[in-house]
Design brief:
The chain is an alpha+beta fold. The protein has helices spanning 16-39, 46-59, 134-152, 160-172; strands at 84-87, 90-92, 107-116, 119-128, 177-178, 184-186, 193-197, 219-222, 225-227, 233-235, 242-244, 250-252, 255-260, 263-266. It has a single domain (16-266), classed as Creatine Amidinohydrolase (Alpha-Beta Complex), CATH 3.90.230. It has a five-stranded antiparallel beta sheet with strand order 7-6-8-13-14. A three-stranded antiparallel beta sheet has the order 1-3-4, sandwiched between helices. Strand 6 (184-186) and strand 7 form a beta hairpin. The radius of gyration is 17 Å and the shape is globular. Bound molecules: magnesium ion (2 copies). Residues 111, 113, 122, 124, 254 line the site of one magnesium ion.
């Protein structure tokens, strides 16, 4: 079974062959998200969606890097799900459950990982269940657009802070807020590799660690988590589900992206 090490691996330049393996892992993740888009409907449970995701991963002999993921400081249970499914004010790390039935107007976030051929694909998407509020639609549009603004900066010789600034600018110029405590990351042999990639560069925040020149062969998971209210978060009693403290709505979009000589390549693209 995939087991992430406590020590984060440094960012690695992938060879052509390794990038092909990353592409294969990313493709499986993309297939799961396309399936979620088709099947996330009112009346379906997040447990049903998890079973669908699991069947696709198993079809390829891929593993879920989320399943069994250790809790922070090992103070709680390991993550019990194959995917994360988070609703409305839940931002990330929601546990799929048979009793959690989707209903009209819900905002569903699905996060999927695949460990395949020794490499990880990691991607998340936000799905509207039926008709959602205008506020929710705006949140979805801006957050998705912020991900693509960031990806457009994933170019050889740009700096990581160029990517982050593009995401933050898109979000904040539209009156929304970026979550501080949860961030994107390098990705490769492990799900979470160096560096951590926040979605903000505040004045009080030391941006020097983000002075990283992007180079062909690097692969990162860029994942804006955006809310309608304040950025403060809280973890529920299940020790996993992260919600907004003020119960504001949350959206989450994530792609695994490679830096190439020809610009960004999205490895988890499905739509
Ligand atoms: Mg993810
Ligand atoms: Mg991720």
């Amino acid at each position: 079974m995939y087991k992430e090490q406590h020590q984060r691996l440094p960012i690695e330049i992938k060879s052509k062959k390794e990038l092909d393996l990353m592409r294969a892992a990313g493709k499986i993740v993309a297939e799961v998200l396309a399936d979620m888009q088709q099947n996330a409907k009112a009346g379906v449970s997040t447990g049903d969606l998890e079973r669908r995701a699991r069947a696709i991963l198993e079809k390829y002999g891929a593993q879920s890097p989320f399943l069994g993921y250790p809790n922070v400081d090992d103070k709680g249970p390991a993550f019990p799900g194959w995917i994360c499914a988070s609703l409305n004010e839940e931002i990330v790390h929601g546990i799929p459950r048979n009793k959690r039935i989707l209903k009209e107007g819900d905002l569903l976030k699905i996060d999927v990982g695949a460990y395949y051929g020794g490499f990880i694909g990691d991607s998340a998407w936000t799905f509207a269940i039926g008709q959602v509020s205008a506020k929710a639609q705006h949140l979805m549009q801006v957050t998705e657009a912020s991900l693509y603004e960031g990806i457009a900066q994933v170019q050889s010789n740009k700096r990581l802070w160029d990517v982050i600034a593009a995401v933050q600018q898109k979000v904040e110029s539209n009156g929304l807020t970026v979550i501080r405590e949860y961030q994107g990351h390098g990705v490769g042999r492990q799900m979470h590799e160096e560096p951590s990639i926040p979605n903000f560069l505040d004045k009080e925040f030391d941006k020097r660690p983000m002075n990283i020149a992007l180079k062909p062969g690097m692969t990162i998971a860029l994942e804006p988590m955006v809310v309608t209210g304040k950025w403060d978060t809280k973890v529920l009693g299940d020790k996993w589900t992260v919600i907004t403290k003020d119960r504001g709505l949350a959206a989450h979009y994530e792609h695994t992206v490679a830096v190439t000589e020809n610009g960004p390549e999205i490895l988890t693209l499905w739509k």
